Amino acid sequence: MKIAVIGATGAVGREMIRILEERRFPVDEIRPLASARSAGRLVAFGGVDHEVRELTPDAARGVDVAFVSAGASISKAYLPEIAAAGTVCIDNSSAFRMQADVPLSVPEVNPEALEGWPHPGIIAVPNCTTITAVLPLGPLHRAAGCTSLVISSYQAVSGAGWKGTRELAEQVEKLGGDIEPLAHPDHDALPDGDVFAKPIAFNVVAKIGEFEPDGFTGEESKIMAESRKILSAPDMRVVATSVRVPVVSGHAVSMLAEFSRPISVDEARELLADAPGVRLIDDPEAGLFPSPLEAAGGDEALVGRIRQAPDRDDALALFSCADNLRKGAALDAIQIAEHLFS
Ligand code: A2P
Question: Given Cys at both, which of 52, 65, 177, 303 links 41, Cβ 3.0 to 4.6 Å?
Answer without folding.
Answer: 52
